[in-house]
Amino acid sequence: MYLDTQHIAGLAKDYRTTLVNSIAGFKSANLVGTVSSTGNTNLCIVNSVFHLGAHPPLLGMIFRPHSVPRDTLENILATGVYTINHVHSGIYRAAHQTSARYPRETSEFAASGLREAWLEGFAAPFVAASTIRLAMTYRDHQTLAVNNTVLVAGEITGIHCPDEIVGDDGYVNLEQAGSLAVIGLDSYHSTRRLDRLAYAKPGREPASIL
Amino acid sequence: MYLDTQHIAGLAKDYRTTLVNSIAGFKSANLVGTVSSTGNTNLCIVNSVFHLGAHPPLLGMIFRPHSVPRDTLENILATGVYTINHVHSGIYRAAHQTSARYPRETSEFAASGLREAWLEGFAAPFVAASTIRLAMTYRDHQTLAVNNTVLVAGEITGIHCPDEIVGDDGYVNLEQAGSLAVIGLDSYHSTRRLDRLAYAKPGREPASIL
């Protein structure tokens, strides 16, 4: 099919949302844990985490326009901390359930059955069942003029991860961790590594470094 | 393992880069095609494409600080157009090769063996061998104060995609397209769908909609 701007604009809203969300490619499936200044914990599944830099280690995350209550974003801004917890095959159903619209006073930890873990004195809750867990410290946010979404930038200030899945060069074997890739908002995928390739140089065929 | 900020800061640079890039989770593998104002085409593999919104359909992309020549970014700003082409299992080696540092006058299309396609009169080159191809029109860019990376926001103004991989609800079956997920900068993965779940509602178990 070929769809131009007029075609795309003419699509039914739900169809367009699903099409645009899925055609963007695979994303990471993460659970973001926060706590309000009054102590209510919150957990939500997020597929918008992306790499911003390694020195310092920064991740970005996109929130929809701040025109309706956004517990997670408000908690991050109020407390300055949050956690990112990988979704694996054993918890994806519970993780998905955190996207339901619960009343504000309900913790999605309790509602989804995912247990909280408080690690190393960090002031935001982790997901006990996750294999890879990141302690995140808020660094900056800005509203994007293009569509009023909000970009939150945070620094990885703690990494919890099993020793045996981290290689000698720092490569984290996400397949051993069971981490999933996601299409759109609802499609969960396990992966199989095809190859890992060496740093590319002109005039040389890419070499496998498996 | 548990690494705190001091541990992370003390890691060797290459180790930290690999660790931080891979622990962020799966990303999409895309080739971004551009052309300079003088007609030189450029192609580079990018793993930083993310969803910004569906109405209008917007994707974001992160570029490293604009302190060294960045052909792709400069071409986008000069011409206002670019293409996003999914990487599949048949072309991932050639796609990876585009990350080599070629002289500015060398087109990575020619260097990697990936053929250009010019579609629907669009003023930026697509990858002939890609199954899913997006025509992108530049909308905005901003430098992120947190680490001077540059976020480019573009609108999907054209979608080229085989009919048979798009479902009745707009869901694009990326596995049928052979699209790959990537860890870090060098690890390529095929996927297998575990499940697709219905819109979550409080007090109801997540239902499969496979």
Report what the structure shows:
The structure is a homodimer of 210-residue chains. Chain A has 210 residues and is of the alpha+beta class. The first copy, chain A, has one domain: Pnp Oxidase, Chain A (Roll). Helix content of chain A is 20%, strand content 35%. Chain A has six helices and 13 strands. The first copy, chain A, has helices at 5-10, 13-23, 71-79, 92-97, 108-112, 174-177; strands at 2-4, 27-28, 30-35, 41-46, 50-54, 57-63, 81-86, 116-117, 126-127, 133-143, 150-160, 181-183, 187-196. Chain A has a seven-stranded antiparallel beta sheet with strand order 4-3-7-10-11-6-5. A three-stranded antiparallel beta sheet of chain A has the order 2-12-13. In chain A, strand 5 and strand 6 form a beta hairpin. The longest helix of chain A is centred in the N-terminal third of the chain and has 11 residues, at 13-23. The model of chain A has no long low-confidence stretch (mean pLDDT 95). Chains A and B meet through strand 1, helix 1, helix 2, strand 2 and strand 5 of A and strand 1, helix 1, helix 2, strand 2 and strand 5 of B. Strand 13 (187-196) of chain A pairs antiparallel with strand 13 of chain B, so a sheet runs across the interface.
